[in-house]
Predict the structure.
Amino acid sequence: MTSDRSDPTQGKSIAVIGGGSIGVAFAIVFARARHRVRLNEPDAARRSSVAGILHAQLGDLEAYDLLDEPASSIVGRITLVASLSEAVAEAAYVQECAPERLDLKRTLFAELDRLAPRQAALASASSAITASTFAADLPGRGRMLVVHPGNPPFLLPVAEVVPAPFTSEAVIASTRALLTGAGLTPVLVRKEVEGFVFNRLQGALLREAYCLVRENVVSVEDVDRIVRDGLGLRWSVIGPFETVDLNTLGGIASHAEIMGPAYQRMGMERGQNDPWTPELIERVAAQRRALLPLDRWAERVAWRDRRLMSLVRHRKAELEV
């Protein structure tokens, strides 16, 4: 790794705080987008191992033809630093990736607010902790928000952008633009809720999986098999709303009429009574029909099947190697 001045004509100066797996991955994302990255890791032992991790991960990306330039060029934009002040001194954007502890984030964001340039957005990669809980009392709270990535973000591009009520609209807009330019897919979460959307969806599936194993309905291995070879394979092409929309002739409104009562009974088994009301079904169906008119339903079903065929062919080829 060279000085962060090795590529002065391109990109912004980005600070990544924390040299754990998410911090290293974010450093790759931003450096791959030709930004200059200062990666802060205060622990000397961890800092000494980061260079090897960067080279290994970028080497794998290069081997799979997922880089548009040599891995060495990307590594050359990343500078490891021990000092927080050095990391953020020239930053246009700060991505915090410290451990998931509220006390730590409160202390860290107070320091970032003091040290970072006033125009820099300050984002946390928190998995569940909202910005309101760690930044509400800080002078620069208007530039603070959560950017929660898929893990690792250089392979799972979705990034939840979760502002607090006090986050500046300009900061939200500039953060979304920066993420998009770095090859990520920012999704604006309109209201702060613990766990945001990614982990609430993941958690709902995990809660039921644990229940089914507890009740000896199925094994751990077979839960993973059902998701890997069924739900997950399909969800890698389309999401849950589009899945049921395309699975039912007449679309998602027909699916809700047919399956809604059964899903309500399943939820009530777990003490959850969240019926799909007519108003909610109408709202969801309207959004689906705006995305896909029913006269294009069969066309989209055929598209889905061809995408799945491509994935199945790829899996078959991998297994035959």
About this structure: The chain has a mean pLDDT of 95.
